[in-house]
Design goal:
Chain A is about 0% helix and about 50% strand. Chain A is an all-beta fold and about 110 residues long. Classes of the chains: A mainly beta (about 110), B mainly beta (about 110). At the A-B interface, strand 5 and strand 10 of A face strand 5 and strand 6 of B.
């Protein structure tokens, strides 16, 4: 049982490039989330999904896109990378509310230069 | 709206002494409250949660937290700190009417030998 896995662990992008951050969970959780973590700012929710085929915006969705074609996978797409997207990105999953304990992946550290 | 505040950026405590990491929240309905811990270069790990019932919640690694509705607080405590407890701690809240968590900015706990 691997839990939540994320790839890659590190990535450096040039301004304007695009990339996809991969996230997979093997706990059959309905809910999946993408957060970004910036120093001193805590975690900000980018997008979330309550099940396959259903996604919704979080607090900071601009510049990102997601899809949820399967229960297991929830990729995050950056289309035109900008320096403001330099951050650590975490994927998480949970059964959903009310108990809502979220399980986090190890993170992807992204630098946009 | 839901919000959470962690008033201390950093807490310093000597090993063997009790520790407290503070958290206050604001919700319009009933709160669901969580504590997570993040070790360097790792994802967040769940410590404990309050959903309903007993105001004193016990969690992993000897941590506990007390829900205080009148003071809208959910402080994290441990009777005797260990150097290995040094990490970044996040409080999170979800209002019963919301489907996502809001995280605080985090408090760095440093336990000195």
């Amino acid at each position: 049982n691997a839990g939540v896995t994320q790839t890659p662990k590190f990535r450096i992008l040039k301004i304007g490039q695009s990339m996809t951050l991969q996230c997979t969970q093997d706990m059959n959780h309905n809910y999946m989330y993408w957060y970004r973590q910036d120093p001193g700012m805590g975690l900000k929710l980018i997008y979330y999904s309550v099940g396959a085929g259903i996604t919704d915006k979080g607090e900071v969705p601009n510049g990102y896109n997601v899809s949820r074609s399967t229960t297991e996978d929830f990729p995050l797409r950056l289309e035109l990378a900008a320096p403001s997207q330099t951050s650590v990105y975490f994927c998480a999953s949970s059964w959903g509310y009310p108990h809502d304990t979220q399980y986090f992946g190890p993170g992807t550290r992204l630098t946009v230069l | 709206a839901q919000s959470v505040a962690q008033p201390e950026d950093q807490v310093n405590v000597a090993e063997g002494n009790p520790l407290t990491v503070k958290c206050t929240y604001s919700v319009s309905g009933n709160p669901y409250l969580f504590w997570y811990v993040q070790y360097p270069n790792r994802g967040l790990q769940f410590l404990l949660k309050y959903i309903t019932g007993d105001n004193l919640v016990k969690g992993s690694y000897g941590f506990e937290a007390e829900f205080n509705k009148s003071q809208t607080s959910f402080h994290l405590k441990k009777p005797s700190a260990l150097v290995s407890d040094s990490a970044l701690y996040f409080c999170a809240v979800r209002d019963a009417g919301y489907s996502t968590l809001t995280f605080g900015k985090g408090t760095m706990l440093l336990v000195s030998p």
